[in-house]
Design brief:
Order of helices and strands: HHEHHEEHHEHEHEEEHEEEHEEEHE
Distance between the termini: 63 Å
Number of helices: 11
Helix content: 40-55%
Strand order of the largest sheet: 6-5-4-9-12-14-15
Structural class: alpha/beta
Oligomer: single chain
Largest sheet: 7 strands, parallel
C-alpha cells in the first residue's frame, strides 16, 4: 500500500527482466531501457512539482533527493528549460517570472560562496566598534553580517535586507535599523518609494554594497532599478563606500546605474584585476584590496 502505481509498474517490469535474462537478452535490454525512461520521466515531474512549490531548486539538493548524480540533474534541468518551464543558472534553476528577473536569493547564496566569505572576512577587518553601517541586500553583504556577528563588533546597522536583520535579531552588540517598503520576495529585501524616503534621512560612516556588474565606462550597475536606487542612496549618505565584488562582476554591464567609479572608495575582490582595470581604479582614486594574490 506504500508503493505508488508507477513504482509497482516499474517493479513488475524489473521482475520480468530478471526472468527474461535467462531467455531473451535483447528483450530484457529493451525493458530495462523502458524502466530508465519511466524513472527519468517521474523525476522530471517531481522536479516540476518542487519548482512550483518553492520557486527555485538547488542541483546538489536534488541530487540527494533523487539519489542520482549532479550531472543527471543538470540534464533534467536542461530538458525542462527547453520547455520554457525554468531558467537554469550556476548551481540550480528557478521559475520564470514576468515581474522579477533576479536569480532567487536561495540560489545566489550557493554561488561563489567561499569567495564571498573571504571578501566578507577582509571587509570586517576595516570595520571598527562604534560605527554605523549601511548594508545592502546582496549575498556578499549577508556574509559580511555573519562575519560581524562572529567577531562581536559593537555597531549600528542600517539595512533593507530581511536576511541581515535575521542574523542580528538576537545580537547583544548590534543595533539594527530596518527600512520598510515593498517586499521584493526574490531578494528578501525592502524596496520602493517608502524605502527610499526612509533611507534619505539616515547617515552612516561606511556603506557595504555589491552590484550585478562593473563597467569601465559607466561604472557600477544593477539588473534591478529598485535595488540600484537603494544602493545609490547608501553611497550618497555614507562617509566611505566599500564595493564587495567577486571577479565575475567585472567587465559586465546592466541597465540601471548605481554609481560612477569615482564615488567608490574601496573595492574588495577575490582575484587580481587586469592592468587596464588597475589603471582605471587609480584614475578614480579607488583602492583595490584582494583576498587572493596570484604569483
Amino acid at each position: 500500500s506504500d508503493v505508488c502505481s508507477s513504482d509497482l509498474k516499474i517493479l513488475t517490469i524489473v521482475r520480468k527482466c530478471c526472468i527474461l535474462m535467462l531467455v531473451n537478452v535483447d528483450k530484457c535490454d529493451k525493458m530495462l531501457k523502458d524502466v530508465v525512461k519511466m524513472l527519468a520521466e517521474g523525476r522530471l515531474k517531481e522536479i516540476e512539482r518542487i519548482l512550483n512549490e518553492k520557486g527555485s531548486v538547488i542541483i546538489s539538493n536534488l541530487s540527494k533527493i533523487f539519489k542520482v548524480s549532479e550531472e543527471t540533474i543538470r540534464r533534467d534541468l536542461e530538458k525542462l528549460e527547453k520547455k520554457n518551464i525554468l531558467k537554469r543558472v550556476r548551481g540550480g534553476a528557478y521559475l520564470l517570472s514576468d515581474n522579477d528577473k533576479q536569480v532567487p536569493l536561495e540560489i545566489r547564496e550557493q554561488i561563489f560562496l567561499e569567495e564571498k566569505h573571504e571578501i566578507a572576512q577582509e571587509c570586517v577587518n576595516h570595520i571598527e566598534d562604534g560605527e554605523t553601517l549601511m548594508i545592502d541586500s546582496s549575498t556578499t553583504a549577508i556574509c559580511v553580517a555573519q562575519e560581524i556577528e562572529k567577531k562581536g563588533l559593537k555597531l549600528k546597522v542600517i539595512t533593507n535586507s530581511i536576511k541581515v536583520v535575521e542574523i542580528f535579531e538576537n545580537s547583544k552588540w548590534v543595533d539594527v535599523v530596518c527600512i520598510g517598503g515593498v517586499l521584493r520576495k526574490r531578494t528578501k529585501s525592502f524596496v520602493g518609494n517608502k524605502a527610499v524616503e526612509q533611507l534619505k534621512d539616515l547617515r552612516a560612516t561606511k556603506a557595504l554594497i555589491s552590484c550585478t556588474a562593473i563597467d569601465k565606462v559607466f561604472g557600477i550597475t544593477d539588473d534591478s532599478e529598485r535595488e540600484a536606487e537603494i544602493r545609490k542612496i547608501m553611497i550618497k549618505n555614507s562617509l566611505k563606500v566599500f564595493l564587495l565584488a567577486d571577479r565575475t562582476k567585472f567587465d559586465n554591464l546592466e541597465a540601471h546605474l548605481i554609481s560612477e567609479l569615482e564615488n567608490i572608495d574601496v573595492v574588495i575582490t577575490d582575484k587580481k584585476i587586469s592592468e587596464e582595470w588597475q589603471k582605471k581604479a587609480k584614475e578614480n582614486k579607488v583602492e583595490i584590496i584582494y583576498t587572493h594574490i596570484e604569483n
